[in-house]
Amino acid sequence: MGGEPRFLAIGHVSRDLTEGGRAAGGAGLYASVTAARLGWRTGLVTRGAPCEAREFLDSLEMVVDEPSDTTTTFEIRYCGDGRRVGLRETAPPIEGGGLPEGWRDAEVVMLAPVFQEIPTSLSGRFSGALLGVAPQGWLRRASAEGVVEASDWYDAEVLGRAHVVVLSEMDVPGGRIPDRWLDHEGIFILTRGRRGAVMRHEDRWHRIPAYPAREVDPTGAGDVFAAAFLIRYFETNNACAAGIFASCAASLKVEDSGVGAIPAREQIHERMSRFPSLKVTACISDKSQVYNSGVFNNDV
């Protein structure tokens, strides 16, 4: 592959226990494989990656897997439109001390914690990058029984440094981006599964439509969306173009299970060409009215 990574993902690669068996998971894994399939030199910093991920990690070539005696392990069960996640085991935090020289110069960086493993101070090490944050892992806590629950989180430094924040409506109470997050500049995207996504960009809200898809497994679709958005936004400097590209990438991912379902760029362009009428549309500019505007209603 040669050279330093252009795209860098940081986050635990997890072992996911599902009804279908054991699989590799984690936002960092899905994001880094997405970037690689879009043709970017890609690096991943993780800790305690499971053996189930080896095939995908080997395909990246640039991986820092910090030593660990444990692997972050989740038990995942889907029910209706939601899912229940249990925490079985956690690997130690990623401190970033093993980051190779030159990796801090990556053009796009995505912080992708799965469960509190990334110190928020790490966001300050990439001042020259387009910084994306998928904060799901900072929005989680585990009950005494090991059930993963939503947790309040706010870090002014991280949100102030982030150029793009992507989260799922399943990760926040009421499916809404917390008000105080929106005091920061940058792009905020809330993904909503088969209902597409909403995006705050330059003080205006936009609807990002979902592409038609035959859903088999939604796991990782939001992470594919986030990585695809970051790369296309870097390439075009156009948030709407990035949004429609990312939505198409996510629609292809849900049609099969696991990391192997992540599409290549050619697949994304082919599906986009079949649905040329799908566009990102602006809908409202007043932040104080956004929650009463219909932007977050189920029928949008």
Q: What order do the strands of the largest sheet run in, or round the barrel if closed?
A: 5-4-1-8-9-12-13-14-15-16
Provide the residue-averaged pLDDT: 90
Shape: globular
Provide the succession of SSEs.
EEEHEHEEEEEEEHEEEEHHHE
Number of domains: 1
Within CATH, the superfamily carries the name Ribokinase
Q: Which radius of gyration do the C-alpha atoms yield?
A: 18 Å
Find the CATH topology. Answer: UDP-N-acetylmuramoyl-L-alanine:D-glutamate ligase
Segments where pLDDT lies below 50 for 5+ residues?
Answer: none
Q: Structural class, from secondary structure content?
A: alpha/beta
Largest sheet: 10 strands, mixed
**CATH architecture descriptor name:** 3-Layer(aba) Sandwich
The number of helical runs is: 6
N- and C-termini, Cα separation = 43 Å
What is the chains' assembly state? Answer: single chain
Task: Estimate the strand proportion.
Answer: 25-35%
CATH class: Alpha Beta
Question: How many β-strand runs?
Answer: 16
Helix content: 10-25%
